[in-house]
Amino acid sequence: MVHITLGDLEGNAVIVSWITPDEPGSNTVLYWAENSKLKTSANGIILTYKNFKYTSGYIHRCTIKNLAFDTKYYYEVGIGNTMLQFWFVTPPRAGPNVPCTFGLIGDLGQTHDSDITLTHYELSAIKGQTLLYVGDLSYADDYPFHDNVKWDTWGRFIGRSCAYQPWIWTVGNHKFDFVPDIGKLNPLNHINTDTTCHLKHQLVHPHYGTQSRELQHISLSCHLTLHM
Fold this sequence. Notes:
Elements (H helix, E strand, L loop, with lengths): L1 E5 L7 E7 L7 E6 L6 E4 L1 E3 L2 E2 L2 E2 L2 E7 L7 E6 L6 E6 L12 E4 L6 H11 L7 E5 L14 H14 L4 E4 L18 H4 L15 E6 L2 E6 L7
Parallel strand pairs: 11-12, 12-13
Antiparallel strand pairs: 1-2, 2-8, 3-4, 3-9, 5-8, 6-7, 9-10, 14-15
């Protein structure tokens, strides 16, 4: 389960997040430009969380900084036989006449229709450089006790795209975690903890995600009414 998102306001950094299920393993990311043989390393942090009867795997988060614009990079996470390799392309330097193409997805969930939607995006003739995700992610709240395993399955499902290009997130009403029967009385608890390796660190506010790149400004917002 590997995801990336933009790591700064200019486009020179990428945040890499991944989960190891059984043991912490390495928190290091190796990366290099496509035309270079010199590998650079960056170290991240590791954390876990608990939610009712669920205990997460080891959540890794690492920021790669000082990247060149409009450049393809390869990166590796893991150690030994568990090492995985992926790639991404950094955005071009922001400017008044510099195009940038965004994909747009929301309410994805994890059904057969979800797979059709993501496949449609992947096969589009016009390729997005970054994906803007406009709310309602795993729909874990549709399952008994807001089953956090559904965040793991959803994370693995979307990894085929967001391990290779940045996804920028905002949440929706299905992210609320209000389940009085099991003592979960804070509806924002699920937002304010690192419930997945791909969410909290990519949101600057629980209901508002924003990325600004010099002359480009992108904002995603959702307005929610909570009835109790």
